[in-house]
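Support reply, case 0932

Customer input (verbatim):
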Amino acid sequence: MFKCGKLFFLKIDNIKLYIYDSAEKCKYEEPITLVFLRGFPGQMSNWKYQVWFFEQTYRTIVYDQRGFGKSDKPLKVSFENYISDLDAVLEKREVEVENTVIVGHSFGAMVAQSYASRRNVMGLVLIGSLRKMKPDITDYIIWYTPSFIWKKIFFTENILTRRMYRNLMFSPKTPDEVFEEFVGDNREYLETLLPPHVYRYGKYLVHYDTTGDLGKIKAPTLVLVGGHDKVTTPKENVEIAKLILNSKIIVIKNAGHLILCEKPKELNRTIQEFIEEISKK
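Our regenerated output:
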């Protein structure tokens, strides 16, 4: 899946996380480590274009957060689980926090915000970020009704799901081949590899709000959002950037919520410029 390092399981207490660390095979002159955190219900392969690009220069770590991808899937989760998991990954992989740039997307950006408010990270990149989960009628159906009612409707490829994901997650300007690649990469994962209880994690996390954490972030922060993002809107990301002292926001044109695959070259270049800027200080 990735080109440089090694995939393996890392045990944290009673949970196994599936992780990729490029330093397993590559040596780096730069002391910087990039750690990527994906949102719900993503898997580490969603970062493929970023890992392929950045592991050439920097140590790159990406892992399936608990409950997702090939990591263990406990019946319940808490927001603090995700913070402590990140701490444990850095400790077990002997990564210096002050040399780490945390890159989070969607819910992963919420985790990154809260983590950076507590730890002295080198830098923070928030992509399609939010402060609080905002459930809709679909979420309540998933949380409180049997899975046979919603699993095939919402998480099996059909006319409804294709239209829903295309309209909600992608810019109308995004080429169809990009959408088709995303569907192909995630079809089996969403249809067969995630048990119903994982889709209900949101009900344990819905009350968590990172607004109070943002003013505590001292690290230089780059906030990125797609101009057509309907999930975590540009307006929401502007508000997030305003609350972080040392931050700047960039709106990427003709991109939706999945900038990772819609505009990978532009996204990678922008993050690279940010890292080069903060590493000179």
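We compared this against your earlier run and they match. Two observations from our side: The chain has a mean pLDDT of 95. The radius of gyration is 18 Å. Please reopen the case if you see a mismatch on your end.
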